[in-house]
Amino acid sequence: MTDSDLPLFDVVMRQRAPRELLPDPVPEALIERVLEAGTHAPSAMNGQPWHFVVVQDAATRQKIADGARAAWLGFARDRSSDQQAPGFKAVDRWAMGGLAQAPVIIVLCGDTERLPLEQMGSSIFPAAQNILLAANALGLGSLMSNLPLFAPDGAFAEALDLPEHIVPLATLPIGYPAKKLGRPRRRPVAEVTSRDRYGNAWS
């Protein structure tokens, strides 16, 4: 499958966050393609403040997964809104070690020498969405998580040798999905939209 095989709205409307990825390697050409999509995101003042760290080394991926597990057990698991929800077990498996199965983890960082950190979101998160959609269009699975960033004692930045001005803001594990997922269930537009003022029905 190539990035021209699916119309944009098909890609957008089938976007899912598969947490079970095959350990099969992802070709370098596909990694390059999703990174290129990331670099074509809009950014504040066209500052393009992103820096991508592509983690393929198994030992480093394990360190990232270990940090995610520590953060999950340390605070995030207990704060999960509904541990009885159907998807909770999949999230739990992923956070407890499944993340390490992803053959590629793209760490999306902001370069604070190019843009102040407080302005970074409007540049970094569009780049993340471009990567997610590009991966989907290429038949890859991906999701965005900041859980690994909360590894105790600065372990995340240390594992990647990040200098102080390069701030990690998201991780995007990428690989081939272990199973096919259907289209996501979404609330209808009219339920989440107001016209002109909050509470005025959209339709």
Question: Could you explain the architecture of this structure?
Answer:
- The chain has 203 residues and is α+β, with helices and mostly antiparallel strands.
- 34% of the residues lie in helices and 13% in strands.
- The chain has 6 helices and 4 strands; from the N terminus they run ααβααβαβαβ.
- The protein has a 4-stranded antiparallel beta sheet with strand order 1-2-4-3.
- The model has no long low-confidence stretch (mean pLDDT 91).
Biggest beta sheet attributes: 4 strands, antiparallel
Poorly predicted spans: none
Shape: globular
Number of contiguous helices: 6
User: Into which percentage range does the β-strand content fall?
Assistant: 5-15%
Number of strands: 4
Q: What is the helix content?
A: 25-40%
Question: Could you give the order of the helices and strands?
Answer: HHEHHEHEHE
Distance between the termini: 38 Å
Which class best fits the helix and strand makeup? alpha+beta
Q: Within the largest sheet, what's the order of strands?
A: 1-2-4-3
Q: What's the alpha carbon Rg, rounded to whole Å?
A: 18 Å
Mean pLDDT, all residues: 91
